[in-house]
Design brief:
InterPro entries: Caa3_assmbl_CtaG-rel
Subcellular location: Cell membrane
Helix content: over 70%
Mean pLDDT: 94
Structural class: mainly alpha
Organism: Alloalcanivorax gelatiniphagus
Order of helices and strands: HHHHHHHHHHHHH
Number of helices: 13
Keywords: Cell membrane, Membrane, Transmembrane, Transmembrane helix
Largest sheet: none
Membrane topology: Multi-pass membrane protein
Length: 271
Amino acid sequence: MLHTLYGALTPYIFSPITVLLFLLAVTAYLVGWRRLAARGRPPSAWRSLSFFLGVLLCYLVMHTQFDYYSRYMFFVHRGQHLVLHHLGAFLIALANPLPVLAACAGDRHFPRLAAVLRPVRRVLFDPVVATVLFVGLIFFWLSPSIHFDAMLSLRLYELMNWSMLVDGVIFWLVILDPRDPDRAHTSRFGVRFLMLVAALFPQILLGAYITFADAGLYDVYAICGRAFAIDAATDQVLGGLLTWIPPAMMTIVGALVVLRLYLRYDSEKGG
């Protein structure tokens, strides 16, 4: 059993950059958590659990044998991006990790780092930019010709996966920011609802198109060979459904979290 588990967790293609980036993220969070705890204000246990669970899920789909099946089955690939762009990214953002990561930089270096990153953050965290990138990258990487090249090029494949993860985290950070928009100058709750609606329907349309399109839309899997003995039509339908239904459900969950944040701050102001 241990041998089987070890084999399942072994990377299909070892990526030093992937290991390094995940280790940096976890280490930075732990250092930040320790510094905040020393000041008597550590992040709550459930937020820390959400962060580590999100990171773990993303690592499992990117750097284990799951990645092998993602390269040779379209519907597994869509499951991989469902985790990177939605579930895993959602859990990481739900943890509100930015204050913890900022604490890692320390009081001495944080102002300088914040000044460098402020212009980039101002652009990427803009509601319109974040929404366009969130939806646009899905359409971009699922364009049949681009998808064909990405699945055959290791560099493009890794770029595709990392762009989906980073973009997903940015989008959900904007949506799930727990701070008071008036004080923190973040996106207002109504804007966040509009972002979710704007992201919802294009994904539904794309998923429906893939589901009902003629088989062979993504012929790279036929050329390379499929890991499971299922036909191209079934693989494509399952992939289309994974592009269609779970992301829509995640959008609804996101809307419920935003509604809860709005009601909490509304009650605080009313009180």
